Amino acid sequence: MKRTYAGGCHCGAVRYEAEIDLNAGTFKCNCSICTKVRNWLTMVKPDAFRLLAGETDLADYQFGARNIHHLFCRHCGVHSFGWGILQDMGGKVYAVNVNCLDDVDIAELVNAPVTCVDGRNDNWQVPPTETRHL
After folding, report:
1. How far is residue 63's CA from residue 85's CA, in Å, rounded to a whole number?
2. What is the model's pLDDT at position 19?
């Protein structure tokens, strides 16, 4: 069931709300950036995401195909969300870091399904052979 969560970065400059159903699933990616920042993400459509504060406090990092905007707070460095244009998901989507949700119950996170994806090899449909480090 969808619920509206508040979230943001560590210093509080970046704030957002997102309508998320954690039971619909989350994912962890083994690409170079997701591994280094330990992203744990869920995808939401643009109509379910509202940036409340901090647009000018966000820095944008892109690499590879440059189709995903890896955003982070210029002050504290936290990657609380990003966005991309993914045609197989219907266009623009937001990737919300579930670790940055302020009002999430730990039991909700523990019970949220997690899918691991092989972004390192651009093989999004097959899980990587090793996932324990994610």
Report:
1. 14
2. 98
pLDDT digit string (tens) for 77-123? 999 999 998 777 778 999 999 999 998 999 999 999 999 999 899 88
Return the H-helix or E-strand segment holding 20: strand 15-20
11's tokens: 């210093």
Residues sharing a CB contact under 8 Å with residue 66, sequence separation 6 or more, in sequence order: none
Question: What is the DSSP code (8-state) at residue 58?
Answer: E
List of domains in the chain? 3-121 (2.170.150.70)
Contacts of 43 (CB under 8 A, 6+ apart): 27, 89, 93, 94, 95, 96
Residue pair 80/98 in contact (Cβ under 8 Å)? The answer is no
